Each structure stands twice: as structure tokens, then as C-alpha cells.
């Protein structure tokens, strides 16, 4: 029996001696890459679990493709590759392993040039690949989805991917040499559980990096502690279970047994209505094991609520969840309604702001001003003690210093203080004092890297945290003090119990001068809601306009209202521009005021109206008196008109006598009609200055001929066309300076005919004589040219002859052969409605090719509009006064809106007025100007109902 045992022992010994250590099979997160050194072609990584000799870990600097389920080189494959690390010994967890460039594989990556932009560690066991860890360079391709995918099993969220920010623009991926984990002088960073260490490794702020060659020094070893498997416990909370009288503005405070991290949303549920709101992890402030947050929206008063936490709402630093299992529910009930003093440092005006200097010192040529700012908001006095005053906002910043909010004059019980703060990664203390004793002292040392930024449309709204103070003992609070180094106070809300209904007294009515202002004070009632009829919600408002101002002040015990009349007596404020630039032809209106009770005097022309219209360059001065005791105000402006310049010339120099040719410039007016703007003599060239902006047509126009025989030239336009409607206008601005050259057009052949037919007619002119322009006339003699031409076209539409009407308006084309002809009128700026078309046989005389030129509408119609067809009155209209002097009126009563034609002729049958206007239903009054008219006339009005005629005498 003993021998048998000895044999067994020997066999066991032999088995033990031949045993070989099994390589370690790693899981995701079991190692972390903590250094890359390009210059020395090395990497450092640390196992967070023990690994045995023979364990293989593969590193690849190629990018991973989810679509291809494998690696793809970033660039030239000869510079990218795979490096396999094989453990030559056993390594304890936390031992930093450095793999340097002694191996050929390592030279293929972590090098300059087309180096890879990420490094991925994995292990292959029995054909299965387990991705363990990864690190990414600072570049756009750094784990960009679809370009360089994160391998399966790894993620930024579980801290198995160390991903540097790709927006650091100073970084050049082709010159990058090293990144290295650095404990930043904090040795405690070298110790922790695997979960805690992975979290530190994933925080890129714990790394140094360089674009230059740096020594290849290894990261110190880490002490990997045993994993924490115990979930955190809730030590205390506000509100507690079934807590009543909870302030809706205060918030929640939780204290755990250890430091925690917010992971999931918290639900606040209204028990009666079921309405919910959610507090996200971003809404939660955590200082170690202390957690606080404000209610997402202020809760209702006197209402039952529950706080609901799902499993894993919080975790400790080792990802152990709280609650571990099941939901945790905290019921509570809010208090009866109380008033809230809202001290908003951003959006509310600071009242009575005064700086009190206590001392000044000079440090490094920089003057330090010591003292404090004294001010109040909504009746609450404050002092800001500060060693420096910054120009951007000296009221809210504490750099360093303290802000004291004085509540000693309030007899109300303060139940809660909810502050909105920005720590700027520096300590910030909040202290509540009662009779000189500190009853609450909180340290807020937020480590957020968010910056406090200002957006004009949204205000300060980034990176702030909320601090909650609850006065459960209901002692009298005399002051709230904030002390910090680089902090800012954005505002706070103070909840208090009302003692009495408000008392409001706005005082007697006020009278002020225009431009002045008056402050209206509704009296200080702590926490009351102020509602002015202006929409303001503050205790005091400043007004500067005449009105009756009213305010209602309300708290939980009642409300009071009052009103006051503010009357503003006008003073004078005249603000004319120093200089006004305008285009020639424009009208500039200078306005000194709108109050007609004031007196005005303008120079140089002596106008006495509040505003004047000017059309010339010059200096204009105004003196204004407000009529209230001789208050004078004066101002002046300079008006400078700019106009276009145009130089025109023709190429046929030296063949005309003086006065033969005039150059006419037509401009399109506001009604879309071309009217004569300027005309000057043109021997060879013509120059126009100070022209209005607009569309123009240039015409060379013969006046009288100085040579014997038939003149071979005729009117022309700047582009060689003879008919103005075929001319393309040119545009001038008030700064145009240009030159136009052109040839005079020759008279077409075919003016001599050998037939026996005649086409003749008469040209009549109607409309306002004021519109008659120089050269808008018929020929006075055979040697004269005219601005109204009669054009003859053949059956093909070609113009074959022109002529001018004589002084009586008669014209004719003779010796015409039989054929088809059309007759039209060419008058610059006037639209002909239709051509007169006829067919003539040999020996035929056509004598009714008549046209009427309407000066008012600038149109040309067929026929003669020179008589009233009927004297029968189908309706009545009124003319007054009659006789008319300068201006009269016509009153017409219509049953419906319609178009009405008004025609006036003299006793010889000449048409003076002929126009159509659209009138509305009922009485309409039409002005009628009679400048340059005298005698008896017939006024005819035509409507859908018929015609009506009256005699009109014009004196």
C-alpha cells in the first residue's frame, strides 16, 4: 500500500515538472495603450490583469472597416503593418510594458510620413478575434465612422477607446511624435481599480503630447486594486421619504456612501395628474458623493410628487449601480404657495450702482483698485468686494472676492435659496448667515471644462451649475455670501413667507420735458409680483412718454393697484444730417419736426413749415421755437446734387451751317413716357451736364437748312434708327460720365413718285398747353423741319417718305402710284395707337388720314377729336366756381365705379382736354387747372349712362 502511494507521488511529480504555463486569454479592456513615441518607434501599454509568458497581443496601425470586417492600410502598405507582442515572462497587473523599435515589425508603424492614425490591440484565440483596446491620433480620420471604424466590442463609452479631439488645429498628423499618459504630479492617479484606471486612460486631459523628438521614457507602473463589487448606498436625501412642505424652487440633494456618476434620467411625477418631467445626467451637479439638481420646471405648490430612480440611475466609480435592483421611489409633497425674490444679475437692471474705493496699489505697473460696488436689484441691497474691476461685467464676476446680499431688513422667513453659478474650475463657497453665525457653508468645486459664453439673444447660458440651500430650521437669514476666485453669479431665487399684503403708492401726477425721464416706484414688497401696464415686472420703471401708468402688486396674501399720469411737454430735437447727397432731379425733403405748434424758419428761402423740399445744392439752416418760453433749437445741413455727364458728337463734320442741327435728349418720366429733357445747338458735338438718372434717347434734329437744294440728311437717333420706337434707350446714373458718337442717317431713296394719287390729312393737337415744348410744332415754312413727322410706308411696311405738317396741321403725299399704303406719326416719346392703312388706285385722292396728338397722355390716335357729338344731357354734373379762375372743380355722382371720359373744346372746335379716369361709387371731386386759358368752353363728360355738356367760362 505504501509502495503504491510512492508511485503515485512520483507520477504526480513528473506531471508537475512537465507542466507549461498557459498563455492568458484577454478580454475587452484588459489592456490600455498609454504611450506612443514616433521618434523612437515604441509603444507603452499596461495590462490591467496578470498575463503569463507566451501571451500574444497584436497591434495594428491600420484602419478597421466594419463593412469589410477587417483592416485596411491608411496609405502605402510598406509603411503600415502589424506588430505582434509576445510576453517573454509573467507580468503582474499594472506593469507598464514598453515595446520598442528593436523588432522589425515595430518599424513598420508609429513612424513619420504616411503613418497610421490609430492603433488597435487585439488577440486571436482558436480563430476568434477579441479586440482589447485602441487609441486614436489627433486627426479627422481618427475613428471617423465609415472611414476608420471602431472595431466591435470597443467603445468610447466603456473607456476602451482613447480618442483625442480631432479639432485641435495646431496638430499636424505627419509631424506628430508622441502622446504619453502623465499623472500630472498626482501619484494617486497611478492607483485604482481596473475600471477607474480605464476611465483615467480615456481622459485625454491626462496626456502630454509633442510635435518634437522627446525622450523615450516609460510610464511608471500602476497599482491595480481589487475590483469594487459593492454598489453605493444612499446615506441621506432631501426631500426624504414622505417629506412635506418641500419648496418648489429648492431642488433635490442626495448624499451617497461613495463618489458616484450620473448615468440615466430621473423622473419627477405629479401623483394626481400623472404628468412627468425628467432630469437628465447633464442637469445633475455632482461633487464627489454629493448630488444635487433643481426641479426641471418649477413644481406646483401644495401638490404630491414622487422622485423615481430606475436601476443604474447612478453608479460608483467601478460602475456598480444604484439602485442595484428594483426602482427607488421617494414620495414628497410641496408647500403652500410662497413668494419668490428673483435676483437676475443678467437681465435685471442694477439700481443705484456706486463704486466705493478703499485703496489702490501698483503691481507690475498695473494699478489695482480695491473696494466694492454697492447696488441693489428689486430692492435687495448688495455689495461686491473685488480687487479688480473688469470692463466686461464687473457686477457678476468674483475675481477673487465676495458678493454679499444683505437680507437683514427682511422680516420674512426665508425657506430656500436657489443659486445659478459658474465656477470656472475654481472653488466657490456659498454661505448663509444668521445673526453672525454660519448656518450653511457649501463648497462648489465644479471641474467642468465648459466656458461661460455670452450670446446677445440668449444671454449667459453655458457651463453654469445650480447650488441649493434649504433653511429647514426656519431661522432668520441675514445675508447670503458668495466667495470665489474666478467665479460668476448669474442669479438666485430666494423663497420667503409673506407677512402682509402689498402697499402701493405711486404719488402725484408728474410733468416732465421731452427727452427727460421719470422713475416710478411701486414700493418694496419682498417677493411680490409687479405687473405694469407697460409689460414691465420690476419694482421701479423709468418712463419718458405721456401716458397713464398703472401697476398691480401681488403676493400670496393679496394685491394692490395704483396709477399716475405722466405728461411730457415737448422740447425740440432737430437732427439734420451733416451732408446729403442726391441725384439731379430728385427732391430732398428736410424735416425739422412734426409738431405744428412749433414755429420754424428756414434759410436761405425763409420757409416757415416743419419740412421743406429742395432741388438745388446748397446749405440749408433751420431755427425752431417750441413756443414754451422761447426754447430755440437750430441745425443745418449741406445738400449736394450729383448729375450724369453726356457728350454726343456726329461724324459728318463741316457740312452744316450754324443753327442747322440741335441735339435733343429725351428722358423716361415716372409714367413711363419719354419727354424732352434738354436740347442744345449741335454744330459738331454737344455736352450735357447735371442730368437726372434714368433711361434716355438722344436725337439729332434739324431746325433750318443753310444750303441750297434738297438736303440729303434727315433726323436720326444715336443708334442710326429713324423711328424713336425702334431705338434702344441707354441708362444713366447720377455718376455716369460717357460719350456717344453716331452717323447722321441719309434720307431713303424713293421720295420722288411718278403716280397720280394723293394721300393727305390733318394733324390736331389736344391736351394741356403747358405740356407743349419747344420744337413740338408743325413746320412754319417749307424750309423748316418739325418734331412731328408724318411717315409713309409701302405695302411691305418699309418707310418710303416723310413730311412735316404745315402751320395749320395739314400734310400730303402726292404723285403716288396705285398700291397699298400706311401712314403713321413719328413724335418722340409719343405712342401711336394704330397706323392709317389704305389702298389707292390711279388718280385717287385720300384726304381723311387724320391724327390727333394728345399732349396729356402722349398718345396719337386716328381721327380728329375736335367736337362734341351731342348736346343732350343724360345726367347732371356740377362745375364750380363758374366762372373759373386758375382752378376749378367738377363733382360727379356715380351709382357704381366706372371709367369716365372728360373732354373740353373751345368754340372753334379745338380740343383742349381729352382724358379718361376711373372713379369710385358715390361723389367724386375732380380738380381742373385752367392755366393760360380764357374765354368760353364746352365741357363734355361721358359715362356708361350717356353724355352731359355744360358751358364753362374761364377768366
Structural domain tally: 8
- pLDDT average, as an integer? 81
The assigned structural class equals: mainly beta
Count of DSSP strands: 77
In whole angstroms, the N-to-C terminal distance is 162 Å
The percent range for helix content is under 10%
Rg of Cα set: 49 Å
Which descriptor suits the 3D outline? Answer: elongated
Summary of the model, kept short:
With 955 residues, the protein is mainly beta. It contains two helices and 77 strands.
Describe the structure.
This protein is mostly beta strands. The protein folds into eight domains: 31-224, no CATH class; 234-336, Sandwich (Immunoglobulin-like), CATH 2.60.40; 340-496, Jelly Rolls (Sandwich), CATH 2.60.120; 510-569, Immunoglobulins (Immunoglobulin-like); 579-642, Immunoglobulin-like (Sandwich); 644-742, Immunoglobulin-like; 757-862, Immunoglobulin-like; 878-954, Immunoglobulin-like. The chain is 3% helix and 46% strand. The protein contains two helices and 77 strands. The strands form 20 sheets. A seven-stranded antiparallel beta sheet has the order 28-29-30-32-39-34-35, with no helix packed on it. A hairpin with a 5-residue loop joins β19 and β20 (276-279). The longest helix has 16 residues, at 2-17. The protein starts with a helix and ends with a strand.
Amino acid at each position: 500500500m505504501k509502495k503504491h502511494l510512492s508511485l503515485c507521488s512520483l507520477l504526480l511529480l513528473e506531471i508537475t515538472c512537465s507542466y507549461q504555463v498557459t498563455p492568458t486569454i484577454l478580454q475587452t479592456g484588459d489592456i490600455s495603450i498609454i504611450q506612443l513615441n514616433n521618434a523612437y518607434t515604441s509603444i507603452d501599454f499596461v495590462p490591467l490583469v496578470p498575463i503569463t509568458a507566451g501571451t500574444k497581443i497584436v497591434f495594428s496601425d491600420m484602419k478597421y472597416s466594419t463593412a469589410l470586417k477587417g483592416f485596411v492600410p491608411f496609405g502605402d502598405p510598406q509603411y503600415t503593418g502589424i506588430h505582434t507582442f509576445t510576453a517573454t515572462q509573467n507580468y503582474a497587473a499594472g506593469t507598464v510594458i514598453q515595446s520598442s523599435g528593436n523588432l522589425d515589425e515595430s518599424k513598420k508603424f508609429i513612424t513619420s510620413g504616411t503613418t497610421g492614425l490609430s492603433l488597435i490591440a487585439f488577440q486571436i484565440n482558436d480563430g476568434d478575434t477579441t479586440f482589447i483596446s485602441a487609441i486614436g491620433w489627433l486627426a479627422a480620420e481618427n475613428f471617423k465612422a465609415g472611414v476608420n471604424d471602431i472595431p466591435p466590442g470597443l467603445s468610447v463609452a466603456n473607456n476602451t477607446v482613447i480618442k483625442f479631439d480631432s479639432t485641435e488645429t495646431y496638430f499636424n498628423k505627419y509631424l506628430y511624435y508622441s502622446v504619453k499618459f502623465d499623472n500630472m504630479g498626482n501619484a494617486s492617479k497611478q492607483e485604482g481599480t481596473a475600471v477607474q484606471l480605464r476611465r483615467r486612460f480615456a481622459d485625454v486631459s491626462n496626456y502630454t503630447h509633442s510635435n518634437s523628438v522627446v525622450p523615450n521614457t516609460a510610464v511608471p507602473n500602476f497599482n491595480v486594486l481589487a475590483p469594487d463589487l459593492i454598489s453605493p448606498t444612499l446615506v441621506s436625501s432631501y426631500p426624504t421619504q414622505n417629506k412635506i412642505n418641500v419648496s418648489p424652487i429648492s431642488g433635490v440633494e442626495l448624499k451617497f456612501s461613495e463618489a458616484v456618476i450620473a448615468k440615466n434620467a430621473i423622473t419627477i411625477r405629479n401623483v394626481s395628474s400623472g404628468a412627468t418631467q425628467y432630469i437628465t445626467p447633464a442637469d445633475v451637479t455632482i461633487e464627489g458623493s454629493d448630488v444635487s439638481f433643481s426641479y426641471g420646471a418649477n413644481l406646483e405648490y401644495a401638490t404630491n410628487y414622487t422622485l423615481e430612480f430606475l436601476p443604474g440611475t447612478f453608479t460608483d466609480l467601478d460602475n456598480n449601480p444604484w439602485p442595484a435592483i428594483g426602482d427607488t421611489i421617494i414620495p414628497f409633497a410641496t408647500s403652500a404657495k410662497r413668494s419668490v425674490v428673483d435676483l437676475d444679475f443678467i437681465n435685471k437692471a442694477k439700481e443705484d450702482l456706486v463704486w466705493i474705493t478703499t485703496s489702490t496699489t501698483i503691481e507690475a505697473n498695473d494699478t489695482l483698485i480695491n473696494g466694492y460696488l454697492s447696488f441693489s436689484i428689486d430692492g435687495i441691497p448688495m455689495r461686491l468686494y473685488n480687487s479688480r474691476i473688469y470692463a466686461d461685467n464687473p457686477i457678476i464676476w468674483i475675481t477673487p472676492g465676495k458678493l454679499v446680499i444683505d437680507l437683514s431688513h427682511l422680516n420674512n422667513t426665508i425657506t430656500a435659496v436657489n443659486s445659478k453659478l459658474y465656477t470656472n474650475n475654481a472653488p466657490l463657497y456659498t454661505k448663509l448667515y444668521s445673526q453672525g453665525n454660519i448656518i450653511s457653508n457649501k463648497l462648489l468645486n465644479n471641474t467642468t471644462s465648459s466656458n461661460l459664453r455670452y450670446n446677445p439673444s440668449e444671454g449667459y447660458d453655458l457651463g453654469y451649475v445650480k447650488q441649493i440651500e434649504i433653511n429647514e430650521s426656519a431661522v432668520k437669514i441675514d445675508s447670503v455670501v458668495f466667495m470665489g476666485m474666478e467665479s460668476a453669479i448669474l442669479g438666485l431665487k430666494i423663497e420667503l413667507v409673506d407677512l402682509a399684503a402689498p402697499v402701493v403708492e405711486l404719488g402725484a401726477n408728474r410733468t416732465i420735458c421731452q427727452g427727460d425721464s421719470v422713475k416710478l416706484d411701486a414700493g418694496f414688497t419682498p417677493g411680490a409680483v409687479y405687473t405694469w401696464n407697460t409689460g414691465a415686472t420690476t419694482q421701479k420703471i423709468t418712463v419718458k412718454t405721456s401716458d397713464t401708468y398703472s401697476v398691480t402688486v401681488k403676493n400670496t396674501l393679496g394685491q394692490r393697484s395704483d396709477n399716475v399720469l405722466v405728461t411730457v411737454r415737448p422740447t425740440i430735437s432737430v437732427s439734420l444730417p451733416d451732408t446729403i447727397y442726391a441725384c439731379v432731379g430728385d427732391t430732398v425733403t428736410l424735416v425739422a419736426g412734426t409738431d405744428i405748434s412749433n414755429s420754424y424758419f428756414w434759410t436761405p428761402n425763409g420757409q416757415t413749415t416743419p419740412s421743406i423740399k429742395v432741388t438745388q445744392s446748397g446749405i440749408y439752416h433751420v431755427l425752431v421755437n417750441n413756443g414754451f418760453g422761447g426754447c430755440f433749437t437750430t441745425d443745418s445741413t449741406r445738400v449736394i446734387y450729383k448729375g450724369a455727364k453726356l457728350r454726343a458728337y456726329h461724324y459728318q463734320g463741316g457740312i452744316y451751317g450754324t443753327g442747322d442741327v440741335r441735339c435733343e435728349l429725351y428722358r423716361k418720366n415716372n409714367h413711363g413716357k419719354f419727354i424732352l429733357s434738354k436740347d442744345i445747338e449741335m454744330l459738331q458735338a454737344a455736352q450735357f451736364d447735371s442730368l437726372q438718372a434714368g433711361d434716355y434717347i438722344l436725337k439729332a434734329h434739324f431746325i433750318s437748312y443753310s444750303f441750297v437744294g434738297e438736303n440729303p440728311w434727315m433726323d436720326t437717333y444715336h443708334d442710326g434708327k429713324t423711328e424713336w420706337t425702334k431705338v434702344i434707350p441707354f441708362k444713366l446714373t447720377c455718376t455716369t460720365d460717357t460719350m456717344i458718337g453716331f452717323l447722321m442717317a441719309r434720307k431713303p431713296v424713293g421720295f420722288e413718285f411718278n403716280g397720280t394719287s394723293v394721300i393727305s390729312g390733318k394733324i390736331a393737337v389736344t391736351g394741356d398747353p403747358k405740356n407743349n415744348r419747344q420744337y413740338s410744332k408743325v413746320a412754319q415754312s417749307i424750309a423748316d423741319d418739325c418734331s412731328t413727322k408724318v411717315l409713309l410706308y409701302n405695302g411691305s411696311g418699309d418707310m418710303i417718305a416723310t413730311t412735316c405738317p404745315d402751320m395749320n396741321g395739314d400734310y400730303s403725299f402726292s404723285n403716288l402710284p396705285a398700291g397699298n399704303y400706311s401712314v403713321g406719326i413719328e413724335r418722340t416719346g409719343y405712342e401711336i395707337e394704330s397706323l392709317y392703312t389704305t389702298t389707292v388706285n390711279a388718280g385717287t385722292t385720300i384726304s381723311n388720314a387724320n391724327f390727333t396728338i394728345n399732349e396729356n397722355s402722349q398718345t396719337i390716335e386716328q381721327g380728329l377729336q375736335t367736337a362734341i357729338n351731342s348736346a343732350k344731357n343724360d345726367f347732371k354734373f356740377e362745375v364750380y366756381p363758374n366762372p373759373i379762375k386758375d382752378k376749378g372743380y367738377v363733382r360727379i355722382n356715380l351709382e357704381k365705379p366706372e371709367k369716365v371720359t372728360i373732354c373740353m373744346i373751345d368754340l372753334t372746335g379745338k380740343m383742349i382736354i381729352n382724358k379718361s379716369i376711373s372713379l369710385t361709387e358715390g361723389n367724386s371731386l375732380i380738380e381742373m387747372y385752367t392755366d393760360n386759358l380764357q374765354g368760353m368752353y364746352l365741357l363734355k363728360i361721358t359715362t356708361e349712362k350717356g353724355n352731359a355738356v355744360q358751358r364753362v367760362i374761364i377768366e
